[in-house]
């Protein structure tokens, strides 16, 4: 990791059943506030957080509801990528996901890491 990195990749495996999804997006928004460019890469059950209406079910007080955290993240320039096999394994297609989510493979995430992005995983 470069010491002066301005980029962050957050890899998420936990979905709407876990408070970690809310924690991850809270930290992602904090990183944007700190001036970082942030990408979230969703794998496994985490793809459920971007399924239409899926994120509406998660609220972990005192954090904002997950739907609001994700909307804020995207509205502030954050990027969300969903793992193609993980999306397909759940029977989802692009239209099943909220607007703005890209279905991108791990190579897109690794490209950011190789370029020096810091990483967090949840």
Automatic annotation (TrEMBL):
InterPro entries: DsrEFH-like, Sulphur_relay_DsrE/F-like. It holds the Pfam family DsrE. This is Peroxiredoxin. Gene3D superfamilies: DsrEFH-like.
């Amino acid at each position: 990791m470069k010491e002066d990195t301005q980029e962050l990749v957050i890899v998420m495996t936990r979905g709407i059943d876990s408070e970690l999804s809310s924690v991850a997006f809270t930290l992602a928004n904090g990183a944007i506030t700190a001036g970082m460019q942030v990408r979230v890469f969703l794998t496994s059950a985490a793809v459920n957080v971007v399924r239409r209406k899926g994120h509406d079910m998660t609220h972990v007080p005192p954090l904002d509801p997950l739907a609001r955290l994700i909307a804020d993240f995207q509205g502030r320039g954050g990027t969300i990528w969903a793992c193609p096999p993980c999306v397909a394994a759940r029977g989802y297609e692009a239209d099943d996901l909220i607007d703005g989510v890209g279905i991108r493979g791990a190579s897109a995430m690794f490209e950011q890491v190789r370029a020096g992005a810091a990483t967090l995983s949840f």
